[in-house]
Amino acid sequence: MEPQSVIFLVIFLALMALAFVLPTLRRQRRERLREQERDTLPGAPPVEEEITTGAPAGTVEAPEVPAPARPVSPPAPPPVLEKPEPTAGRLVRLRARLSRSNNALGKGLLALLSRDKLDDDTWDEIEDTLITADVGVDATREIVGKLREQARVEGTASAADLRAMLASQLVAALDPTMDRSLRATPHHDSTDGRPAVVLVVGVNGAGKTTTCGKIARVLIADGHSVVLGAADTFRAAAADQLATWGGRVDAEDVRGPEGGDPAAVAFDAVKRGTETGVDTVLIDTAGRLQNKIGLMDELGKVKRVVSRHGPVDETLLILDATTGQNGLEQARVFTEVVDVTGVALTKLDGTAKGGIVIAVQRKLGIPVKLVGLGEGPDDLAPFEPAAFVDALLAE
Ligand SMILES: Nc1nc2c(ncn2[C@@H]2O[C@H](COP(=O)(O)OP(=O)(O)OP(=O)(O)O)[C@@H](O)[C@H]2O)c(=O)[nH]1
């Protein structure tokens, strides 16, 4: 064979060998990549990205590896349901929260009542102390007037006796005969087997959503079932906040589109609660300023529309205790728009003005049914006048 032919033959054989080896190398690479892909943990960047990143700009390369399926996240674990604390004795458990913020009142009054001589100046100081604690001017005058009279009739009394007399006057001012039960369960006469409906109203930031969540826990702790209606379509996060509260104790929540009609959401929530046969539907409403007439009208509409299912059983006004006497004016406006049947006074842990409870009841003539004593999920207590006054006067 001629040397030229030998060279051609060698080149030909070399080309043939390449044609055979290259696909094999490609196949091996593909298999390596697949193995890598199998080893990739969920959440790591997909292999596809690694391959394409290095391609020169403008070149279109046929993908050598089929696009891997997106890493699938493991299914979310079922929510861990919480077991709320029983309601009995909560005010006693939370007593320290009250006395911590009010002990200035307790200490101050005891120091005054311990004076050897209870002259006019001392009585004035006792009055001032109670007014400073937000008991209200009229209520304070009445309470101190009765206390003075009692002290005079009973002659000289010890500081401890006077303190006990003052406590009983304060309890009397809170009218312990008022019905403070929350009309939140179908056992209540008016419900006819449908869920009891609780409408929660109040100015923004008073603690409506939080209190709705806390009440749901109270009801569930007592063995009832609850649907939450997120009729606060005004504040975007409120519905999420309510859903979170519900999720923790397995209470379904009903919501509508952001900025939607609150009355429609409230109506749907009651409908849903009736269909699913729950005991209670709790409706959270938007925070409304009393001077925004349109918003107050809207609240009236919510109540009217919900009433198509049957009367609202409890309209609970949420009042922030730290707003003091200003809160009272807000409260009065609410009572004109909706028939408020109970008051929940929140943030009593954050004020030295616990006397506001007396002022609220006196001004509105509506019982304080619940008190909020902290941000914790079970920091809501049924209101009990004697236990409250005892904590208020603690030293
Ligand atoms: N310390 C304390 N904080 C509370 C209490 N109740 C509610 N809060 C806090 O008050 C803040 C406002 O509560 P929300 O429930 O969002 O008030 P809201 O009335 O629903 O507010 P809007 O939706 O804006 O109308 C939150 O930070 C709550 O944790 C309480 O009893 N004590």
From TrEMBL:
SRP54-type proteins GTP-binding domain ranges (all copies): 367-380
InterPro entries with a match to the protein in the record: AAA+_ATPase, P-loop_NTPase, Signal_recog_particl_SRP54_hlx, SR_rcpt_FtsY, SRP/SRP_N, SRP54_GTPase_dom, SRP54_N_sf
Pfam families linked to this entry: SRP54, SRP54_N
Compartments where found: Cell membrane; Cytoplasm
Residue spans of biased composition, Pro residues class: 65-81
Ranges in coiled-coil conformation: none
Keyword field: Cell membrane, Cytoplasm, GTP-binding, Hydrolase, Membrane, Nucleotide-binding, Receptor, Transmembrane, Transmembrane helix
Binding site for GTP: 202-209, 284-288, 346-349
SUPFAM superfamilies: Domain of the SRP/SRP receptor G-proteins (SSF47364), P-loop containing nucleoside triphosphate hydrolases (SSF52540)
Catalyzed reaction equations: GTP + H2O = GDP + phosphate + H(+)
EC number: 3.6.5.4
Keyword Iron assigned: no
Region (Disordered): 33-86
Function in brief: Involved in targeting and insertion of nascent membrane proteins into the cytoplasmic membrane. Acts as a receptor for the complex formed by the signal recognition particle (SRP) and the ribosome-nascent chain (RNC).
Protein name from the UniProt record: Signal recognition particle receptor FtsY
Biological source species: Luedemannella flava
